[in-house]
Amino acid sequence: MTARSTYLGASFVIVAVCAKGESLAPPLPEIQVSALLEGMPSFQQRNIEFIGGGKSFCGPTAASNALMWLADRGYPALKPSAENDSSAQKKMIKRLAGLMGTYRESTSLTSFTCGVNTYLRTVGYAPKSWVSSGNGCANYGLLPPDISVVRSMSSGNTVMWFSLGWYCLDESSRKYSRDFGHWVTLVGYGRNREGIADPNCFVIADPESPDGYKYITFKLLTEGKIGNGSSRVDAKGYFNIVELNTQLADRSPKYCLLESIQALTIE
Hints:
The protein has one domain (22-266): Cathepsin B, Chain A. It contains three helices and twelve strands. It has a six-stranded antiparallel β-barrel with strand order 4-5-6-7-10-12. It is α+β, with helices and mostly antiparallel strands. Helices cover 16% and strands 33% of the residues.
């Protein structure tokens, strides 16, 4: 099934005010139309059936959203046998959590990709390609994610994920220090919630959100450093997702940065 343009109702206001060190992301190169993977699940990770109530289950849940979508579009063996789709997805999430090691800790980029690939092999499928752009935890020496990778979503058997990181900013040194990470499923791009064309708008299924799809825009960082442990990289070229920023108890902002884009195409 080929992703296609669509209209999604309800109201949405894009935040257009940029914080210091940020600018609006330039329009995505060569993207002429929007894409939406219709029917993409938006399963919640918080569930009493998952270990720890699903607190650290964003990785396997985000992965399961895309795999369940593929299962209904020509890859039926991906879906576990169950009485309904909800039960099948819960079984899949538990299995992916085991393959990713999520029972022990949160899901790293390596654990995520290895877990998904192992799952594919065990049910009889194989990736035609896996494109990884960016890096987990903004590791030293690696480049920021390339947003143009989302163009591959126009292929009907390609699914994508974003790995995100929440960072605290020291205003004096302009250093972003990582607090924790998160996984979401990319659902579409190119139109906002009102159905208006916007090349800077992306649609995600967030496992932590009870409200279904979220519409986000990227703000390009133009200065600063990103730190994670002993690693330090130039923040220029990374994106801040304003709609996902949060406030800490002391009222200092926590910035949500896009760390990597993962694109899987199944044979």
